[in-house]
Specification:
Layout lengths: L9 H5 L6 E4 L5 E7 L5 E7 L2 H19 L8 E4 L5 E5 L7 E2 L6 H15 L22 H7 L1 H12 L11 H8 L8 E3 L10 E2 L4 E2 L8 E3 L1 H15 L13 H15 L6 H27 L4
Antiparallel strand pairs: 1-2, 2-3, 3-5, 4-5, 6-8, 7-10, 8-9
Helix pairs in contact: 3-7, 4-5, 4-6, 4-8, 6-8, 7-9, 8-9
């Protein structure tokens, strides 16, 4: 373990893992929460509970190392990690210290989040660091609209969902038209992007006027329009309208591509409650992205 990246010997953390407070489980099989050491130091700990998640936890540890090495201000410091890379500790950003993890957005919070995104994009990775940020999770040849067009079962599942939603019924989805429009988007993988920015991954401190970025397994050298527009969709879903002050950041081909990506993912059949919740959220995200496409296309007569 390289001491350049850690402040705390791992055994001191390991011996306290059973005392994690605010235990929670997200979409993946991991445990996470706040842990306090005997000296009063608090930290956020994330522990993988299966081999698949452990693989991504290892990547996240390596990413924190790189970000800390580049003095990236807008993410917590990596404090310690296990020798098998299945568990790590970072600085905690708690509500008691003024960090807001809720889905409540404001212009100040959104502007701060964009500053964090811009700072991330400005990092100049070395040739040895770049391989860490290549991934096949999102590739330019994965077009959700094409997947739906090629798979009638998935398309029917999506159509049923749309027909049960008041807004979905107004969108008049035509798979051929959606697919043709989505071809206007071409990936431009030029900068370091987070790829999963939403309220529970970017806590905001109003006092500091700073938004921090956490949860890094999806980080890649990718297209900044994906980060920007997926964030704007998330914020629009929260009830904060982005169509006026942030119109110049909305990109219709990107929104169209995202709608297909989310819609396609939402048709995966799941039995686990957490995964079902994820698919429902992806459907709502796709719905909002396509609603923005329709709204802006009509408003500004974009074909």
């Amino acid at each position: 373990m390289n001491s350049d990246y850690i402040d705390i010997d791992w055994p001191k953390v390991k011996n306290k893992l059973d005392e994690i407070k605010n235990y929670s489980v997200g979409y993946t099989n991991s445990s996470k929460g706040i842990l306090s050491l005997n000296n009063g130091k608090t930290m956020f700990v994330k522990k993988a509970n299966d081999q698949l998640v452990s693989t991504w936890t290892k990547k996240e540890i390596e990413i924190y190392k790189v970000l800390n090495k580049h003095d990236f201000f807008y993410t917590p410091k990596l404090l310690s990690y296990s020798e098998d890379f299945s568990c790590f500790a970072i600085d905690s950003l708690t509500a008691e210290d003024g960090w807001d993890w809720s889905n409540k957005w404001s212009e100040a919070r959104l502007d701060s989040t964009f500053r964090s995104i811009d700072a991330l994009a400005s990092i100049q990775l070395s040739e040895t660091e770049k391989p860490l940020f290549t991934s096949d999770k999102i590739r330019d040849f994965i077009n959700g609209w094409q997947i739906l067009s090629d798979n009638q079962k998935r398309l029917n599942s999506l159509l049923r969902k749309l027909n049960t939603d008041p807004i979905g019924r107004t969108l008049n989805l035509n798979i051929n038209n959606e697919l043709n429009f989505s071809h206007k988007f071409r990936f431009n993988n030029t900068t370091l992007v987070h790829n999963d920015i939403r309220s529970d991954n970017c806590p905001y401190s109003e006092f500091r006027n700073v938004a921090m970025l956490v949860d890094w397994p999806w980080a890649v050298i990718g297209d900044p329009r994906i980060d920007c527009n997926s964030l704007l969709v998330h914020v629009q879903l929260s009830g904060f309208d982005v169509t006026k002050d942030y119109y110049n950041k909305l990109d219709l081909p990107t929104l169209q591509w995202l709608a297909g990506y989310w819609f396609s993912a939402s048709t995966d059949e799941e039995t686990e409650p957490a995964k079902i919740h994820l698919r429902n959220h992806q459907f709502l995200s796709g719905l909002k992205a396509l609603e923005l496409v329709r709204l802006l296309s009509s408003q500004y007569q974009i074909v």
